[in-house]
Amino acid sequence: MTVAAALAVHPGLTLAPADPAGERALVERLVEWCGHYTPWAAVSEPVEGVAGGGLWLDISGCAHLFGGEEGLLGHLLERLERLGFAARAAAADTPGAAWAWARFGAGMRERLAGLSPGGQRDALASLPVAALRLGPAIAAGLAGLGLKRVGDLYAMPASALGPRFGREVLLRLDQALGLVAEPISPRRPPAPHRLHLAFAEPIARPEDVAEAVRRQLMLLCRRLEQERLGVRRLEVAVFRVDGSWRELAIGTGRANRDPTHLMRLLAEPLSTLDAGFGIEMMRLSASELAPLAIEQGDWDSGAVKAEEADLPRLLDGLGNRLGFRRVVRFAPQPSHQPEEAVRRLPAGAAPPAAVSWPAGRRPLRLFARPEPVEVVAPVPDAPPVMFRWRAHTHRVVRADGAERIAGEWWRRDAPARDHPERDYYVVEDEQGGRFWLFRLGLYGAAPPPRWFIHGVFP
Amino acid sequence: MPTSLSIDRLRAEIAALEGSGHDAVAGTCPLGVPELDGALPWGGLPLGCLHEIAPVSRSGGVEDGRGIEEGGVEDGAVLGFTASLLGRLGGRRPVLWVAARDDLYAPGLTALGLDPARLLVVRPGPAAQVLWALEEAVRCPALGGVAGEVWNLDFTAARRLHLAARSSGVPVLLLNRGQPCGPAMTRWRVGPDPSVAPPGEGVGPWRWRVELVRCRGRGVGEDGVVSAWMVEWDDETRGFRVAAPAGHRPPMPAPRSRRGLRAAG
After folding, report:
1. Pair B27, B233: CB distance under 8 Å
2. Is the CB of residue B80 less than 8 Å from the CB of residue A339?
3. How many domains are there within chain A?
4. Which of residues 354-373 of A touch B (CB under 8 A)?
5. Is the dihedral of CA A278, A283, A286, A292 positive or negative?
6. Given B108, B253, B264, which is nearest A364 (Cβ)?
């Protein structure tokens, strides 16, 4: 039916362009979803002239978990309906018969009767020949000969059909009737990036262990290169002859698949690995992966590349020993609150491109928690003339201020919501020590103002 | 004269052995201040070796151990000097700071010419890890410079750092709050000084008293320092300049103890 014809019948029709790739992706996701009925699920390839996508589930040995085949189909259809799909389902002895019954069977939730080949034969007999997954051209050709029902084909000799329509008609008929096996190839989950290595004799020498890890790593890295992936976290598990096992892990700041680099990171944990009475099996798994494009080095830039590689090597070395949280770089964060204007990024992260740091004099050290100070200051608002901090009395000689930094009232979680504004002063004592003090609150207001020191200047 | 000739030759040989001669230096980084550069025999800060920077305590001497535990955060001047030196080192290459406290503030570092986009920071941890991290960083030729805050570095550790720096060419700034360590090429002492500004102007540009206490190839003067300057930070040029040679300053009044402070508020 053309769009114009359809609109003539029903003017309010919603039109959407066909999206075969999107539909295909959706069906593939549904296959994954079917994994809780059976691990053996696959997409049934679309046949020309038959609308709708399809799934095949091999439910041998699974149906009893859902109360038999009827129960499983009911469960499946109910949940598909809840997901918004209009679906039909059929269960049969062969994929071909199930396909035919689900599409051309007489009614919803119909289960093709008869586990014996004879029952299947009778049930299929009344269906149109298109139910055999034949294209419209073959179906029309068969109809031209008066063969409209599947049952009409039963009596036809193979020698009469074969030369006219090729092997397909006979094959599909035999597949539907179970005379030719038709296996379903399940959609396999992507193989995990995991390698096992079992040793004929247990190994214990550290050099042997390292060599075994190195070889595994080479294999893994070669595979990662084909898949354009890099390792973020790598785990090595060793299984010892006495049944105990040990695991060690390394991380990288950026995705990496250079076996030399990874091996260097592994060297330290491997050196402390206790082989016990010997290791009989080893497992290397890349538990965290990230995309990593293939890099093509210039033919004359070997030295430069080597130097560029030094930095990630250093950062990974530091990160693995000290913890990646301890190797950082600073990045600005849009906030007026001094303590929130900076955030720490992992050192491996790319430095932010456009950097704008807050203007104004800012201290070199900013205390995570401002420390309270005792202050002598003229009221109502003037810099202090003297303050006492950490058992030292500082007489203020010079002072700058006040710089008023208001609380971020638009943020619900702002820390200083109760004390909305701070008046900051840069003060210098008589010896040249320079400090950043602030007054929280105002004189004459309900909670009396308090003074804090927030940082030191150069 | 044969004697002076042979002494010169001996000096050159010793310098070559010690690795402090002109040839042994992996390069220099000018400080941009003619007076300071002139005082260094290399015409700038030599790369690939150790430089020590120590704080001057409030009483004028080197800080004692107590100072670090209690008031160790009042080290803005020496921290600022270290940051400004680190900012000059290494061009656009990244630099690494092994910190002793977790409160370095990036906007303040930017103002001293140390671009946070270049700066990698190792947050504080046990002393052994600090040393290990320093040594690991010094061995990495991709870095433009390394700064580390240490406390009583022993001679062996310092020597290891020095050798690592020589082989990689990465300069190391040790913000050393303890005893001086042996192999450093230069040793500086930095303390704050009251800023100078017209009355009523508030706090003027940062002023530090910078003393070059020790420098390979230079003798020590009778006051125990090689040279001393009063330097002032210039926000316009993002560099410091010598405000006055040190020593012409009237002695500072000793801080009187103040009892019976009336707390404000």
Report:
1. no
2. no
3. 3
4. 355, 357-358, 361-368
5. positive
6. B108
Interface test with B, best of A261, A310, A314, A387 (most B CBs within 10 A): A314
> Is the four-CA dihedral B220, B225, B230, B236 of positive or negative sign?
positive
A368 CB neighbours in chain B (<8 A) are: 102-103
Full domain range(s) for residue A43: 20-177
Residue A275 to chain B, least CA–CA distance (Å): 27
What average pLDDT does the segment A324-344 reach? 87
> B119 and A330 in contact by Cβ < 8 A?
yes
Question: What are the counts of helices (DSSP H) followed by strands (DSSP E) for chain A?
Answer: 12, 15
The per-residue pLDDT for B80 is 92
Task: Note the pLDDT tens digit of each residue in A131-172.
Answer: 888 888 888 888 888 888 888 888 888 788 878 888 888 888
Q: Do A455 and B122 touch (CB under 8 A)?
A: no
Nearest chain A residue to B130, by CA: A322
Domain-terminating residue out of A270, A293, A316: A293
Pair of tokens at residue A422: 């701070």
Fold of B25-245: Rossmann fold (3.40.50)
B200-220 confidence digits (pLDDT tens) = 778 888 999 999 998 888 888
Looking at the structure, do residues A281 and A416 belong to the same domain, yes or no? no
Residue A244 lies in a domain: yes
User: What whole-number distance in Å separates Cα of residue B24 and Cα of residue B12?
Assistant: 11
A315 contacts chain B (CB < 8 A): yes
How many Å apart are CA B47 and CA B215, to the nearest integer? 14
Contacts of A401 in chain B (CB under 8 A): 202
A260 and A122 together in one domain: no
For residue A417, what pLDDT is reported? 53
For residue B112, pLDDT over 60 is answered with yes
**Residue A177 scores a pLDDT above 80:** yes
ipTM: 0.81
Interface A-B: count of C-beta contacts within 8 A: 202
A47 CB within 8 Å of a chain B CB: no
